[in-house]
Specification:
heterodimer; A: 204 residues; alpha+beta; Glutaredoxin; two-stranded antiparallel ribbon; B: 171 residues; alpha/beta; seven-stranded mixed sheet; 42% helix; globular
Chain lengths: 204, 171
């Protein structure tokens, strides 16, 4: 096969454009966007989708992992969120976004072990192939997206941190996620729709 | 030659004094070997801008952050290679409970020559946007600035990338 210069440039252009598309798509969701559903493997071997939760009013989607100290600091608080809000229609759905070749401590076996040790009652899903977190625009663990189920789909209502003290749960002043879900449950405006916290960069 | 040496020594000391005056630490972790300067964000802010002629490279890291630890030698190398024009400051986000058990041993073991300070301020939602509006909060993160310009990077560096960026500031 003879590759002409023209063909070469055509291929080159396609390569450049597609790489831009890839990076351009990495910015993720803003408040008000419709969040994608997914079908990811849970620690019990079954797959989980948001559409499985027929009775849910929305979701607390949390990108988290085993190996990040910030994520670990929030484990009990994530479990507490699920205990408090799953029955009210806002279950926690945790997704582990790291590349497990880079972070073997986040592989499925490790996720199972951690969930068992901590008694997680929420789904803890593997972002197999790392396809979901870039769509959401998660950059770190833990990184929270609160979604509200509507006719148009699951709308992003909050992006950010769980609360304002990663070091000490007893010294928290503002419970961002609880405040946001409480507002959604009572039909009120969410005061802070976006917050920031330090976290571990998602490992690619 | 002797006079030159004395002059260099004196100028070093005078620089040091200025720096110390400018630095007001909120706390110091005790250690037999050395003290670690610990700041809240208000205390740290003085390191995040300058009026002098140097270029500053501020790297946010932690001992538990694998990509941070991987790139740390590049910052050390840069600090050494451009000692006259560039100052690297490594801002550790290690948890306070790990200052003695992890951070200080790490600094000693790796013989870090760049200035290391610890940032202990839980209200990250307030201070992250003050570092840079675009920062989502993931580490490693780096700011490079001089008195004229400033750039923020929420990414990992290799040495060539880091040197290339810094050179833009040295023109």
């Amino acid at each position: 096969m003879k590759i002409t210069l023209k063909t070469f440039f055509a291929l080159f252009t396609i390569a450049i454009l597609s790489s831009f598309t890839f990076f351009g798509g990495g910015h993720g969701y803003h408040i008000g966007d419709v969040a994608t559903d997914f079908e990811l493997e849970n620690i019990d071997g079954k797959t989980v989708s948001l559409s499985d939760f027929k009775a849910a009013k929305g979701f607390i989607v949390i990108f988290t992992c085993n190996t990040c100290p910030y994520a670990v600091a929030y484990e009990d608080r994530i479990e507490a969120l699920n205990k408090k809000y799953a029955d009210q229609g806002y279950p926690v759905v945790a997704i582990m976004p790291n590349n497990t070749d880079v972070k073997p401590g986040d592989n499925m076996e490790a996720m199972k072990a951690r969930a068992k040790a901590k008694g997680f009652t929420f789904p803890y899903l593997m972002d197999e192939g790392q396809k979901i977190y870039p769509q959401y625009g998660a950059t770190k663990t833990p990184h929270v997206y609160i979604l509200q189920k509507t006719n148009k789909g699951n709308i992003v209502k909050y992006i950010g941190a769980i609360d304002d003290n990663y070091q000490d749960a007893s010294a928290v002043n503002t419970t961002y996620v609880e405040d946001a879900v409480d507002a959604l449950l009572s039909g009120k405006e969410i005061k802070e729709t976006q917050t920031r916290a330090i976290g571990c960069s998602i490992k690619v | 030659m002797k006079y030159v040496a004395i002059f260099v020594l004196l100028s070093l000391f005078s620089c040091k004094d200025e720096k110390n005056d400018a630095v007001k630490e909120i706390n110091q972790a005790q250690s037999t070997a050395f003290t670690l300067d610990i700041y809240d964000f208000n205390g740290l802010e003085k390191f995040l801008s300058t009026t002098d002629d140097k270029t500053y490279v501020i790297n946010f890291w932690a001992t538990w952050c694998a990509p941070c630890v991987k790139e740390l030698p590049y910052f050390e190398k840069l600090n050494k290679a451009y000692a006259n024009e560039v100052e690297v400051i490594l801002v550790s986000l290690d948890f306070p409970s790990k200052y003695e058990s992890k951070l200080k041993p790490y600094i000693e073991k790796n013989n870090l020559q760049s200035k290391v300070v610890a940032l202990n301020d839980v209200d990250s939602n307030t201070w992250i946007p003050k570092v840079d509006e675009s920062w989502t909060g993931a580490i490693p993160a780096t700011i490079i600035f001089n008195k004229n310009e400033r750039k923020f990077y929420e990414k990992s560096f290799n040495y060539d990338e880091l040197e290339t960026e810094v050179k833009q500031f040295l023109k």
